[in-house]
Amino acid sequence: MSQPDVAPPYEAILQRGADTTSYRRLDLPAPEVREALGRTFLEVPGSTLRALTDTAFADVAHFLRTAHLEQLRRIVDDPEASGNDRYVATDLLRNAAVAAGGVLPMCQDTGTAIVQGKRGRHVLTDGQDAAWISDGVRSAYARLNLRYSQMAPLTMYEERNTGDNLPAQIEIAAEGDDAYELLFIAKGGGSANKSFLFQETKALLNEKSLLGFLRERIGALGTSACPPYHLVVVVGGTSAEATMKTAKLASTKYLDSLPTSGSAGGRAFRDTGLEEQVHQLTRELGIGAQFGGKYFCHDVRVVRLPRHGGSCPVAIAVSCSADRQAQARITREGVFLEDLERDPARFLPDVTEEGLGGDVVAVDLDTGMDAVRSTLSGLEVGQRLSLSGDLVVARDAAHAEIKKRLDAGEEMPSYLRDMAVYYAGPAKTPDGYASGSFGPTTAGRMDTYVEQFQAAGGSLVMLAKGNRSGPVARSCGQHGGFYLGTIGGPAARLAQDCIRHVEVLEYEELGMEAVWRITVEDFPAFVVIDDSGRDFYADDDGPVLQIGRRA
């Protein structure tokens, strides 16, 4: 006798609860309803996938979730927050208000486009879903003031920018009934670089060992990915890739509705008690929202997964201040996209600049390198600065080219001897603006160049985001150099309010990684490493919790 066609008992690992997302309906036609085989199908044309994708990436480049903005405002209102915490949170709120104008994206690193889809069994397409979605990515990045960051490998060692921010990472699964669900993520390189996998053992599965492990690993994340972070910890996993993917999804809040208890069948769950413990741990680190305080993280998600008895993978990941994602649904009623906050300015505090963080030292960058270093030499690490004048901009590719010249016996280019260097790469410049979004990139990627460059008389004043390695501090102490940190995240505000002129100096063929000369006015910065080698993030007494003051 034939067996009935009934699915066997099955317990999914990731069991999400009801979707509570607030959506807005897009002005796109609803899917066509088709009847066949005694069933009702929804036919979704490729043009709909393309238009939805284009709109989604436009939205996430300029708008944030209301809950994220509420968390920033809570920092400003918290009497226990440090002055630096409040200053960073306020600047990020200002940046959100600028980006919401739809011209300047919130971050200059407009990210890798990542799309996860779940197509129900009664949803029909032409089978070219990834191609249509990819074309939507291409369309958004071409028409908006976004940055092309994807590098195509021509050989093992040679690369070329693709010029359209493709390829995107697109994954479509068959799951569900009569809806097409999608999650759109723009993931910048800085926060992606703070995704880590650790292959541990059962010995970690007790409270003392796990919390000790997490304290060490979380403390090592640093600030280069633009905190305050949304932090994720995933313990377990049926494979390394399952652990890492769960961390990525959890960082977008996609798994917030998981159960809060496990089962004999191996379902994943959130450990909300451990989330509170880890969140408190992050506050005790003293790192704060980039320059000291308690707001290293907005919140924490801890997910426990089933595992092989001989393996215990652990993932740690973050979503940064550019917390960019949006869910979407295509149903018989129409096409719906997550409703992000359109009026972030309503969260801005009514405070004066003086109320955000103590004294500010003005630095005239046009007085010459010796004069600038003399001004900086008398300041404490953690001191807040306001920079005005000309900067040279150079990052990864330009540093590699300059190193080749030094290795060949050539002199250090005069622009790196005479001007402070800003590690950054701009997004496209909108009509009528001096600059596109132009925030800092991660300083640590240039660490290996610093000693050689400073010994050759260059890079004596550096400006970027995040912490540096010990050799950089030692080189600054030896050569009389400085590293100034600036706030990671407010790229749109910097472009609108602080950058007055931009021109290419050299290596124009490198695109956004060319060497640029920019003129800035009241550009915010902090002394992170001084000419004695003292490091704000690695000082023996711990991070400075108030500008210019000890904890």
Description:
With 551 residues, the chain is an alpha/beta fold. The chain folds into three domains: 196 residues, no CATH class; 133 residues, no CATH class; 172 residues, Fe-S hydro-lyase, tartrate dehydratase beta-type, catalytic domain (fumarase, Alpha-Beta Barrel). It is built from 14 helices and 23 strands. The protein has a six-stranded mixed sheet with strand order 1-16-15-9-4-8. It has a five-stranded mixed sheet with strand order 10-14-11-13-12, sandwiched between helices. A five-stranded mixed beta barrel has the order 18-19-20-21-23. Helix 6 crosses helix 8 and helix 12 packs parallel to helix 13. The chain is globular and about 85 Å long. The termini are far apart.
Top keywords for this entry?
551 residues; alpha/beta; fumarase; six-stranded mixed β-sheet; five-stranded mixed β-sheet; disordered C terminus
